[in-house]
Amino acid sequence: MSSDKTTLDKGIPAEEVPPPAVVAVDPRLLVREEGFKGYITEFKRRLRGGELGSLPVIVALIVIWVIFQSQSSKFLTSGNVLHITYFLSGTGMLAIGLVFVLLLGEIDLSVASVSGLASALFAVFTATHGMNVWLALVLTVAIGAGIGVFQGFFFAKIGVPAFVVTLAGFLGWNGLMLWVLGDTGSLQIADTGPIHLLGQNSYFMNQDIAGAYVLATVGVAALLAGSLVEQGRRRKAGVPFRTTGEILLRTVLLAIVAYGMAIVLNNAGGVPNALVFFLIALIICDFVLRRTTFGRKVFALGGSVEASRRAGINVGVVRMAVFGISGGFAAIGGLFLAGQTQAATLQGGGGNLLMLAIAAAVIGGTSLFGGRGNVWSALLGMLVIQSIQTGLDLLNMNQSIQYMITGAVLLAAVIVDSLSRRTQKSSGRA
């Protein structure tokens, strides 16, 4: 009553007084204030909204491991786990580059041919012309990136569809690889320098058993330090941040996985250098995509090209840069694969390499429709694919069965992605 009287005294009718302003509260703050119950509620909300993240592929990976372990007791032995982690790295490098392209909503069909050409060029540079192996490495990767930029130019500036440009590259670069290898069709690569580091018998810290634990400790410490620094920065800026309890929980979970893998791999000889380099590439690319302006531009383009152009993003430059990254990682992947055989052959970049690299990125959770995904998809997808291949090999299954199962898993991943996008649209979150 007193408030009405005060209002009337000022000459303003009570019914015309605007209601008090409602202060918007970030839902993430409410979630963290509710503690564990809040995170469960948020998790359910994300599931209902179609924000599945990496959950489907993680569940699929666990199911695959349980099935193969039940069929063969050798599947989860140290030696077999070492086999899986080593042989996923080469194709995984191609998948990293493809993640960048897929985030644009495009495709690069040339990566397998570029990887084969890279191994052939490296062999010619070192074996035929006696070039320093490290200089040959840099030159080979630069050529791969240049090929990507070249193809990206026709897509970004001329307007030729990426599918057509890279399909032409798939054929053209494969032909150039055959020409480089010449009549012999094969060139041996000396077991020195980068090829030795990527070989099957090359382990972190020269097979020192402490190497795996050093890596695990560095990884866990880096996550903890980075999370605490981000917490302080966000708290200072007055925006939502992870609580210390959440940070410690995430650190403990990573420590369990990291030290568990260290124990398993040490029992088989150590952590392969190829896996170490692959993980380093994932960390760097994850930082680029999530923490840099360039990464935000890539996601923006995948969401809407026209909106990105109106926001002042140089669409052509970003597109060419992304295809350059794809070409560079294709060349690196070719060197990884050459390290496995210590030779450049006519089979380089052939077979089902292209399909497996694309499948890895998609199965791991990167959307074919663009704008959603991360580079860790390459690791998760390759774990699924390599687990299937290795498990079927243990069961003496025909390669045709491997292709059919991998194809079914890929189709399931795309279906989940499509349903997830539809759910997000219906809930107004897409």
From TrEMBL:
Compartmental location: Cell membrane
Location (main, coarse): membrane
Keywords (A to Z) from UniProt: Cell inner membrane, Cell membrane, Membrane, Sugar transport, Transmembrane, Transmembrane helix, Transport
Membrane topology: Multi-pass membrane protein
Pfam family, one: BPD_transp_2
Gene Ontology molecular-function annotations: transmembrane transporter activity
One GO CC term on file: plasma membrane
TM spans (from-to): 52-72, 84-104, 109-127, 133-155, 162-181, 209-226, 247-265, 271-289, 317-338, 350-369, 376-395, 401-419
Primary role: Part of the binding-protein-dependent transport system for D-xylose. Probably responsible for the translocation of the substrate across the membrane.
Protein name: Xylose transport system permease protein XylH
Lineage: Bacteria, Bacillati, Actinomycetota, Actinomycetes, Kitasatosporales
